Amino acid sequence: MQQLANQSEMDYQSEIYKDAYTRVNAIVIEGEQEAHENYIQLAQLLPEHIQELTRLSKMESRHKKGFEACGRNLKVTPDLEFAKQFFSKLHQNFQTAFSEGKVVTCLLIQSLIIECFAIAAYNIYIPVADPFARKITEGVVKDEYTHLNFGEVWLKEHFEESKAELEEANRQNLPIVWQMLEQVAVDAENMAMEKDALIEDFMIQYGEALSNIGFSTREIMRLSAYGLRAV
Description:
- This protein has helices at about 15-45, 50-75, 80-85, 90-100, 105-125, 130-155, 160-190, 195-215, 215-225.
- It has about 230 residues and is an all-alpha fold.
- The two termini are about 20 Å apart.
């Protein structure tokens, strides 16, 4: 499909666009809901950071309301059942790690993978979003970087004792991101968002996060390669 270059060329009321939007809008709503719940659970694992994590969880809840408004603006009903299934593997892995008290794995899933996935999606979406959603999404992206920063700072401070678990959590969870991107590729393309651009932006965000934590360039290349195993 030929990509639409900018907002002025987009037909936000077309059946193809609105059909894709039912799922993409649901994904961002569910993603913010997952994040809201994950930060509440992280506060139980990291009680010394309960104030900050509670603040982040409330922020995610506000984001969810913003994206619900985006759907209403286009008169689209989000397919939330699809979205729950879309996040089900990451959700299950987070819950398993939480039940085992694995703070490092929980932080990798929420503060790195989910936040980098969200930032990448929003970065690619903003240039082609309708004016209402564009304004909402631009505000959300600024907040997401603070969420990413919390996980980066904590993991950097605990890097040596966390490194082995980070590598294992990466091996288990990064391939899921590729499956998720593949699952949404057609809908994203129908909204003028290229899958290759989504992958590229995600890998840039994720690589920078791993670098900030303490991984070397060679290690980041090795860790990133695990995602390709799902292709």
